[in-house]
Amino acid sequence: MQQIASPYTLPNGSVLKNRIAKSAMSENIGTFSNAPTQTLINVYSVWAKGDPGLLITGNVMIDSRALGEPKNVVVEDYTHFDLLKQWAKTVEGTGVHLWPQLNHPGRQAFASINKEIVAPSAVPLKMGGASGMFKTATPLTEEAIWDIVKRFGNAARILKEAGFTGCQIHGAHGYLVSQFLSPISNTRKDKWGGVLENRARFVLEVYREIRKQVGADYPIGIKINSADFQRGGFTEEESMEVVQILSKEGIDLIEISGGTYEKPAMVKGNRKQSTLEREAYFLDYIEKARSITNKPLLLTGGFRSVQVMEDALAGGKLDIVGLARPFCLYPNLAKDIFDGRVARFEAPVPTIGIKLLDKMGGVELPWYELQIQRLGKGKQPKPKLPGIWAFIFTLKGMFIKSFIKN
Ligand SMILES: Cc1cc2nc3c(=O)[nH]c(=O)nc-3n(C[C@H](O)[C@H](O)[C@H](O)COP(=O)(O)O)c2cc1C
Predict the structure, then answer these.
(1) pLDDT tens profile 98-138
(2) Tens digit of pLDDT for each residue in 16-32?
(3) Are the CB atoms for 176 and 210 separated by under 8 Å?
(4) 199-217: average pLDDT
(5) Mean pLDDT along residues 249-253
(6) Among 266, 270, 279, 394, which residue has the most ligand 1 atoms within 8 Å of its CB, making it the best to mutate?
(7) Ligand 1 center to residue 203 CA distance, Å?
(8) Dihedral over Cα of 379, 385, 387, 388: its sign
(9) Amino acid 338: pLDDT
């Protein structure tokens, strides 16, 4: 049997039926009041039929006042509990695990759809011409920090009750957890900032609160940056220390990624040709991480060829292979591998020729969201979809939500 098809047991005893995970992709197809829609629920039935070991949802927000995108799902109480149950039911009887990814965007929140933006410190995003879409955040008070910590736990518990089989903290890509970790975005002088021990306090408290609310046996994972890839930012050495801290606490699965809105290495790699040829962007890091933790490691970013995935698993560098964009165009990805139908999964980078937008993924990300929407509507993916539709989709969503907000 290919190693990629072999089962894997997490420390809590949950069995992933194979080594393939669909990594989180913000679907942006909830309602404008941030409830799950039938289209969103359907797409998870489609993906479950494709038979991966683990499906991680797009980021679910834990506070309706802090959205990454206009149609993110928000879980802060039981308002949409029946829909959450339907969502969790999509994997029933398949043996596929379904985990929500829990997130708070912090300063990476568009000003047009959020009234007040909060973050560890008032450090504006440096995104050139796109900076105007964001505004400088208000630093979080001690009380507000604890409120957010509690919200992570609350959302995890509600989703567990709805039937999700584990959860993942979004600690990567420059969102709130990652903002606390990075000395660029966290310039606090209190116990939440300064030395790494202080910057890591937030993620640790979030983990502990979730653990308290979901119990000892429920799997909790984290997606963490190998680095921010920015001068003066969160370094690889610091990331390793956080991995060790969370390993000691009992985290069940560590997913490695990298980058922020300012430096989007998560979808581009660090651009070295050698890295691109090797596909997996953060392979060097995971090899080092393997030597400092015995917790399960999941690597995401750039995997395209089945052979590269197999080699990475065979070398023991990682336990689970994570893919995101290919799942939008190959919804049966895991089955395609096991049946030997596909040896390489292409995932194009659509653009519209406006440098600023193309560079920050302003077309690429919504283009993939549109493919997800197609799957949820029972359509086939459309690899030739013009990028301009993605741009229009984004503008429309932002425009409507900005009216609702005000
Ligand atoms: C449309 C889209 C939405 C994404 N949303 C999220 C998200 O909500 N949370 C997250 O951790 N990563 C998100 N990502 C990043 C992916 O999980 C993944 O790290 C990245 O796409 C690299 O993997 P890939 O090369 O297999 O696509 C998103 C990527 C795309 C394309």
Answers:
(1) 999 999 999 999 999 999 999 999 999 998 888 889 999 99
(2) 999 999 999 999 999 99
(3) no
(4) 98
(5) 98
(6) 266
(7) 20
(8) negative
(9) 96
Spatial contact of 405 and 114, defined as CB atoms under 8 Å apart: yes
Instruction: List pLDDT tens digits, range 260-278.
Output: 999 888 887 665 655 556 7
Is the confidence at residue 192, as pLDDT, over 90? yes
Domains defined for the chain, CATH in brackets: 3-118+140-167+263-405 (3.20.20.70)
In this predicted structure, the answer to whether residue 2 has a pLDDT above a threshold of 90 is no
Question: What is the Å distance from ligand 1's center to 28 Cα?
Answer: 12
Residue 108, C-beta contacts closer than 8 angstroms, at least 6 positions apart: 68, 125, 134, 173, 174, 175, 179, 260, 261
CA 191 / ligand 1 centre spacing (Å): 31
User: Rounded to the nearest whole angstrom, what is the distance from the C-alpha of residue 189 to the centroid of ligand 1?
Assistant: 32
Pocket test for ligand 1, best of 20, 25, 67, 73 (most atoms within 8 A of CB): 25
- Tokens 């149950």 appear where? 85
Atom 16 of ligand 1, nearest CA residue? 324
Point out the least confidently predicted range of 174-188, 307-321, 352-366.
352-366
Contacts of 232 (CB under 8 A, 6+ apart): 183, 184
Residues with CB under 6 A from ligand 1: 23-26, 58-59, 101, 170, 172-173, 223, 257, 266-267, 300-303, 323-326, 365, 368-369
Q: Which of 34-43, 308-317, 346-355 has the highest mean pLDDT?
A: 34-43
Q: Are 244 and 292 in contact (CB under 8 A)?
A: yes
361 CA closest ligand 1 atom index: 31
Which residue puts its alpha carbon closest to atom 4 of ligand 1? 25
* Residue located via tokens 């993916």: 381
Joined together, the tokens standing for residue 330 give 């190959």
Ligand 1 centroid to Cα of residue 179, in Å, is 18
User: Taking the model in full, what pTM does it have?
Assistant: 0.97
Give SS3 for 359: helix
In this structure, the residue with its CA closest to atom 22 of ligand 1 is 301
C-beta of residue 224 within 8 angstroms of C-beta of residue 257: yes
The contacts of residue 314 (CB under 8 Å, 6+ apart) are 3
Length in residues, the chain: 406
Give the pLDDT confidence score for residue 401 in this predicted structure: 84
Alpha-carbon distance 76 to 80, whole Å? 10
Residue 405's pLDDT is what?
65
